[in-house]
C-alpha cells in the first residue's frame, strides 16, 4: 500500500514511511501553522513508532519548533494536553491496522485537522515547502499528559463512581492499557489485567474477530467480570463488553454517552445506528460522511442552533463539543476519545442499578453489525461499487437475495434501505486496503446474518 494522506492522516507501509517522506510531511504540516511554536509528539506501541517519532521530533526542532515528547500514550490524551497548551500535535500511529503499517495524525491547537486543513497540508507537501525559523527548537520530555488525562475522568465521574464493579482490561497492544487500568482503579473498580502482549496485535474495535469474541466471553466467565474494556491501537476507539463478554456496538455507546452528558444534538456518520433518530431527547440529529473531519464540520454547523452538541462515529470514537456536567465537570474535547464512551455507560448502569446488558436492552430495538474484507484489490473494489451505484439493474440483481430495495443513500459509499426495514451499507476504506460492510435490522441475529452473507457476496468482486 503506497503511503496515502486523508481522513486519518498519513498511512503507509513502514518500509515506505522513510525518514525523508515523514520529514517532508512534518515540514508541510508545520508550514500551515500560524503563530504556533510548539509541537507535542506521541506514539503508539508499534515497533516502528519510536523511529518515526524521533524523525518527527528532529525535523520539527530543525525547523525551529519546540518539541514536547510525550512518549507512548493515547491519541486523545495527547490531544487534550496539546490543546490545553495551545500547541499543535503529531501522533505516530497506524491505529487498528497491522504492524507492518504505520502513520501520522495531525492536530492543530484547536483540535483535529479539517478537510480544508488536509488540502493545505497536501498542497504544501506537493510543493516541497520547508518550514524554518533559522533557529533550532528546544526539546523536552513530558510525563504529565497521561496523569492529566486520568484526572479528567476522576473529576467528571467521582472517585467512587464504579465501586463494586469488576472490570477486565484487555491489554493486547493498546497504548492506553496502563491508562485504562489507572482510571478504573481511581474510580473504585476492581481491575483484572487480561492478555498482555509485547508483540503488536492489531485490534479493530468495529469488527472484532470471532476468536477474540470467544476469548472475551471466556474471560468474563472465568473471572466473574461485569465488563471488559479495551481500545484500538492508539486509543481513540473504545471497546466495551457486558458481563457475558458481548461487545456493545460503538454507536450504541455513543448514544448512551450522549445521554449521560446531557447532549441535545448529535452529529454522526450515515453508517451509525438509526436508533439515535428515534430518541426524543436529541432534538437535532445530523448525518455525515464517515470520518471525524466530517463529524467535526457537522458539529460546528449544528452548534449555531444547538450548543449542547456531541459527535460520535460508528466505531465509538466520541467527540464532546461542550463543557458538560456529569458527577463533576468535564470540559469539551472535540476529538475522538475512547474513555468517555467506555465510562459513561458503566456509570449510567451503576446509577440506575442495572446491568450494562439491561441498560442497552432498554433502548429502541435497532441493531447493527459490521465486518471487513482485507487486502482487497482497490481498483476492482472501486469498479464494483461504482457499478452498483450507477446501474440500477446490477444493483437490483446483486441485492435481490437480501430484499426489495426501497431507497438508496450515497452520502458515503452505497447505503441500501430495503422494504423490510433492513439496511445494507457498502464502502471501501479511505486509508487501508479494506472494504467495509455494515448491516442493520430489528434483531442482532438478523443484522449479523445480513453482514455475513453480504461479505460472502462482495468477496468475489473485490479480492
Can you offer a commentary on this structure?
- The protein is an alpha/beta fold and 463 residues long.
- Helices cover 36% and strands 26% of the residues.
- It has helices at 19-31, 49-62, 75-84, 115-126, 145-157, 177-186, 210-223, 250-260, 292-302, 340-351, 356-361, 378-390, 392-399, 444-462; strands at 4-6, 9-13, 38-43, 66-72, 88-92, 101-108, 111-112, 139-141, 166-172, 190-196, 227-231, 238-240, 265-269, 284-288, 309-312, 318-320, 324-325, 329-330, 333-337, 367-374, 405-409, 414-418, 423-428, 434-441.
- Strands 1, 2, 3, 4, 5, 6, 7 and 8 form an eight-stranded mixed sheet that branches. A five-stranded mixed sheet has the order 14-13-15-16-19, sandwiched between helices.
- Helix 1 (19-31) packs across helix 2 (49-62) and helix 12 crosses helix 13.
- It is globular.
- The mean pLDDT is 94.
